[in-house]
Write a structure and sequence with these properties.
By secondary structure, the protein is α+β, with helices and mostly antiparallel strands.
């Protein structure tokens, strides 16, 4: 099956367009110049920007594919026959070639005498010097000759898999026993879902029998760990084993910044240093179960998603050696290497923690967690430290005096949002309306602060002409805001609650139409897209063609909602997208709030989880028409994941972009940014 990159609909393999939303399944736009490029190419042919999907392939040679070493031990304690036969004919059997029940007689042991002609060769083919120079290798006469193992070596451009899907971007060298090589490959069928990716997306438990069927043992840690804690580990794209090698195909983290680089960056805060130490402790516990703690002890393997995200991750996993004995002191040595390379000064008590870890005075993870919490408290409240100690410590900037205490190891959500609306270049009035509310609640406890967040974000695109569309959109926003403020201000709403709220908004607009005796196209109405965030949970509801997008580092830009319009309705009925959108009424809405009674309103409701830093974009069609967000995702949207990007001017930039490339309609956008902090 081929999964649409916009709406995630599963299409037949031969489809060129998504049956649900009409998106091309063979091409996409270059994020840099907007040129249409095939999905199976690495770079844009116009500007050279990398547009292809690249994975990191971990290649492990199979034992049968490795030639034995020249000095390998011989079997049977050298108790076997050795020799060579240069004759092309099979030698005749002699009494010495068979095992008899009785010893041979003396006559049988006698060597027959040779005649003069037999004893003297007719011609000296080899001289004595030539014969001495010839070396005949010893062979086991009891074993038949074996074919040489197939070569693992592959040039750039060759395919790594039998299905010719994953194309090598690096040459694959000839491998030796016990050697593992990582190379980059281009996925020439990026929308095809591999069996392992489908299994992982379904969040199947690692103990499920399907895992044993589909996943080779070397890949099982990736599947399990990435499913449990996706922020730390690359996701498993595919894995297989052939006669020559095993391959584990992973998300490509090789181009991410190294942890050691950001550790040395003076802009990195002392809190972040301690957070990373805490992450390493938690990873130590996770990897111990799988025997992969060695993965943490290689500085080249420790990466960060980006310089601005600060999220620690591992490029790949390394299994511990069978005879290795690892302890927390090895982790302490890694910390010491990081500080020595960066030449950063340690916080006062962190020096003691590091020393105690390396000297095995701290022997348990619980002790180490507690010690790091003490260090973090010192950083957050430097005024409690002696003045002399503070002045000598370069890791304690004065701006941290009022920083809140965070509970180490617990994740929390920080939420911020900005909304903007614009009349556009061709309309004389604005029928769009939006409302947003963000609440952050902080509770002090003896262990630190506990944060909870809640956000309500509503966007409506009205219709019905002057004094109609803007009225409908405003009624919808007001009704929904009052509903959730008065009745469900704290708890996370259920699907039934969402439907009830939307029906009440529809009823309010419908009654207004009835009172004003509006009919036909004069009946006012509005689209709706709404998101409610409560900590890590999100519920999205929509009616009409206003959209919600989700942007993350791991999944990129995804269109979460599917437009309620005639073209999409026809595609869902199996009509070819080209035919569906050739209709003159293809973009006519099939649903809206207000024109009809509630039995004609069927909102789509979806529940989501915030598992990593996420940006939600609620937008009217003035911003989303002509695939504007998809085309300019890299330049306009990706920077929103940078915590240093100010949301207000960024949203203003989206409005300007829409006026430049669309401008035919009102333009409204709400950008919600959710940070997942992991102290």
């Amino acid at each position: 099956m081929v999964v649409c990159p916009q709406c995630q609909f599963e299409n037949p393999n031969l489809n060129k367009f998504c049956q649900r939303c009409g998106t091309s399944l063979t091409q996409k736009h270059c994020p840099e110049c907007g040129t249409t490029v095939p999905l199976n190419t690495l770079q844009c042919h116009n500007c050279g920007t990398v547009t292809g999907t690249v994975y990191l392939a971990v290649v492990i040679p199979s034992s049968s594919a490795i030639a034995p070493a020249e000095n390998s031990p011989e079997s049977l304690n050298n108790d076997h026959l050795q020799g060579a036969n240069t004759s092309s004919e099979s030698p005749s059997e002699s009494s010495l070639d068979r095992i008899d029940t009785e010893p041979p007689t003396p006559e049988e042991l006698q060597t027959p005498e040779l005649t003069e002609s037999q004893a003297q060769p007719l011609e000296d083919i080899f001289s004595q010097t030539d014969l001495e120079a010839i070396t005949i290798p010893a062979e086991d006469a009891l074993c038949p000759p074996q074919e040489p193992p197939p070569s693992l070596e592959r040039p750039i451009g060759a395919y790594l898999d039998p299905q010719d899907r994953y194309q090598l971007l690096d040459p694959l060298p000839a491998l030796k026993a016990g050697e593992t090589v990582t190379v980059k490959v281009l996925d020439t069928q990026p929308l095809q879902v591999s069996p392992l990716k489908a299994l992982q997306d379904q969040s199947t438990a690692p103990s499920h029998p399907d895992v044993e069927t589909f996943i080779i043992p070397a890949a099982q840690p990736y599947f399990s760990l990435a499913s449990q804690t996706p922020n730390y580990f690359p996701r498993l794209q595919d894995a297989w084993e052939s006669d020559s090698y095993q391959v584990i195909l992973l998300e490509n983290f090789a181009d991410f910044p190294r942890l050691s680089e950001l550790w040395s960056n003076r802009k990195t805060t002392p809190q972040q240093i301690v957070y990373w130490l805490g992450d390493l402790v938690e990873l130590w516990v996770l990897l111990e179960t799988w025997g992969c703690r060695q993965s943490l002890l290689d500085l080249q393997n420790l990466r960060v998603f980006s310089q601005n995200s600060q999220q620690l991750c591992l490029q790949q996993l390394y299994f511990d050696q069978p005879d290795s004995v690892l302890s927390l002191s090895n982790l302490g040595q890694l910390w010491q290497d990081l500080f020595q390379q960066s030449q950063r000064t340690l916080v006062g008590s962190l020096t003691e923690v590091l020393r105690d870890v390396m000297e095995a005075k701290i022997q348990t993870v619980e002790q180490l967690r507690t010690a790091l919490m003490v260090v973090l408290d010192e950083i957050n409240f430097p005024s409690n430290l002696p003045q002399q100690q503070t002045s000598q410590n370069e890791l304690l900037p004065s701006t941290l005096n009022q920083s809140p205490t965070l509970i180490l190891g617990e994740k929390f959500i920080h939420l911020e949002a900005v909304g903007r609306t614009d009349v556009g270049r061709q309309r004389d009035h604005n029928e769009d309306c939006f409302g947003l509310q963000t609440h952050i609640k902080i509770q002090e406890t003896p262990q630190g602060q506990i944060r909870s967040v809640r956000g309500l974000y509503i966007l409506c695109d009205g219709m019905g002409g002057h004094a109609g569309g803007e009225v409908a959109s405003q009624i919808a926003v007001d009704t929904l805001q009052h509903y959730f403020q008065d009745q469900y201000s704290e708890e996370f709403p259920t699907e039934e609650i969402l439907q009830d709220a939307i029906f009440k908004a529809n009823e309010a607009i419908y009654n207004e139409n009835q009172q004003e005796v509006r009919s036909g196209s004069g009946r006012m109405g509005t689209t709706l897209v709404m998101a409610i965030v409560v900590n890590h949970q999100v519920v999205v509801a929509h009616v009409g063609d206003s959209r919600l997008y989700r942007l993350t580092r791991q999944q990129g830009l995804q269109q979460i909602t599917v437009d309620h319009e005639v073209g999409q309705r026809e595609i869902q009925r199996g009509i070819d997208p080209d035919i569906a959108y050739s209709r003159p009424d293809a973009y006519q809405l099939t649903q809206a709030l207000g024109p009809r009674e509630e039995q004609f309103v069927h909102p789509d409701i979806q529940f989501l989880e915030i598992e990593e830093d996420t940006v939600f974009i609620l937008a009217s069609d003035g911003l989303t028409d002509h695939n504007l967000l998809e085309t300019f995702c890299e330049t306009q949207l990706d920077p929103l994941l940078n915590p240093q990007t100010d949301l207000a001017p960024a949203v203003d930039g989206l409005i300007t972009l829409a006026n430049q490339y669309n401008g035919h309609d009102n333009i409204t956008a709400i950008v919600v940014r959710a940070w997942v902090s992991n102290p």
